[in-house]
Design goal:
Layout (H helix, E strand, L loop, with lengths): L9 H20 L3 H17 L2 E3 L2 E3 L4 E4 L2 E8 L2 E10 L5 E3 L2 E5 L2 E7 L5 E7 L9
Antiparallel strand pairs: 1-2, 3-4, 4-5, 5-6, 7-8, 8-9
């Protein structure tokens, strides 16, 4: 048999229900280490899945990195990534923009973009001022 609630006990009942919900909410807010580890691993997997993998190293979208005499940039797109040359590097590390020529320390460098995101890079001795004319 169900007993009817007395209206005089109603405020106490509401307070008890409120306290119960507060305890549940407080417990829910506490960080569960196992769940935190799962979230961390999931985020790590997502980051690796959407990273450029270039010669065993991972790079984020937009990140630039040196590769021999070139500066490279990682770019993500739907379902994959690409790495493109964005500049050439002189012996001293000076960046040369694509499709330009630059002279440094007696050398004339040329950085020429190619189809597919690559570049041709070369240098010649700048002998223009040292030529003897007869």
């Amino acid at each position: 048999m169900i007993k009817a609630l007395r209206t005089t006990n109603l405020p106490h009942l509401i307070k008890d229900i409120s306290n119960t919900f507060e305890k549940i909410e407080s417990h829910r807010r506490k960080a569960n280490p196992l769940m935190m580890n799962r979230y961390f691993l999931l985020l790590l997997f997502i980051e690796i899945a959407f990273a450029c993998d270039f010669q065993g190293k991972h790079y984020k979208d937009g990140e630039t990195f040196k590769m021999k005499n070139f500066m490279m940039r990682c770019r993500h797109y739907d379902g994959g990534y690409t790495t493109n040359v964005i500049a050439c590097l002189t012996v001293s590390g000076t960046q040369i923009a694509l499709n330009t020529t630059y002279t440094e320390d007696g050398r004339q460098y040329t950085c020429q973009a190619t189809l597919g995101g690559g570049a041709n890079f070369g240098w010649n001795l700048d002998v223009g001022d040292n030529v003897d004319e007869e």
